[in-house]
Design a protein that fits this description.
With 227 residues, the protein is an alpha/beta fold. The chain is built from seven helices and five strands. The chain has one domain: HUPs (Rossmann fold, 3-Layer(aba) Sandwich). It has a five-stranded parallel β-sheet, with helices on both faces.
Length: 227
């Protein structure tokens, strides 16, 4: 019997690869995306267009507005940094974002009778966000099994899968290409143009371009600038 899994799916490179991996591992994917007032909301349009063609049984888009709190370049008028990946947690960090996202995913998983959640976090080629680290994922998984009726009653054990967490961006791209992922149908930029062009200079663009260069593959996305 095919097991259901909830996949956090933003429409970006990592989450799209993660969705493809979940399908090849025999799970029936249920994709969940978030419209949270993010500056790079165009990414969500890619998610809406591609979730079902990528194999999602259902695609749930949860809407809420983190702009009410701000605190991030992605949810306020703070400028998106363009000088490169630094040593400190950047202002593109959205306070508690993955905790919020995983909580929604956990709730839907419990309703669906699913005990598997996939998230495309990465702790190698990344911006240093604290909620992308293995110890954070382990802590959330422990909490999930303590905080749910299904977990307490022993109906199953929730597992948070992070298939990309120890991969370089080049390895992620290589894996996705081997699974037939069309990266021209993804967007990773934090500050895209209204027409959908990637800025080429934000942390996310730089990491993506670095990954494609190291993989020896041309990035099919259109960039308006590059160093």
């Amino acid at each position: 019997m095919t097991k259901k899994a909830v996949i956090l799916y933003s429409g970006g490179l990592d989450s799209t690869t993660c969705l493809a991996i979940a399908g090849t591992q025999g799970f029936e994917p249920y994709a969940i995306s978030f419209a949270y007032g993010q500056r790079h909301g165009l990414e969500l349009e890619f998610a809406k267009a591609n979730a079902r063609p990528m194999g999602a049984k259902e695609h749930l888009v949860v809407e809420f507005d983190l702009r009410m709190m701000g605190g991030s370049a992605l949810t306020s008028d703070i400028a998106v940094p363009k000088e490169g990946v630094g040593e400190h947690i950047p202002v593109t960090y959205v306070p508690a974002r993955n905790t919020i996202f995983l909580s929604f995913a956990l709730g839907w998983a419990e309703v669906l009778g699913a005990f598997d959640i996939f998230i495309g976090v990465n702790a190698l080629d990344y911006s240093g966000y604290p909620d992308c680290r293995p110890e954070y994922i382990a802590a959330f998984e422990t909490m999930a099994n303590l905080a749910t009726k299904a977990g307490v009653e022993g109906k199953g054990r929730f597992t948070v899968h992070t298939p990309l967490i120890s991969m370089t961006k080049a390895e992620i791209i290589g894996k996705g290409l081997s699974l037939g992922v069309d990266y021209s149908r993804t967007l990773s930029c934090y500050d895209p143009t209204p027409e959908g062009g990637a800025c080429g200079l934000c942390d996310s663009c730089r990491l993506r371009l670095k990954g494609f260069a190291e993989a020896g593959v041309a990035d099919p996305v259109r960039y308006v600038a590059r160093d």
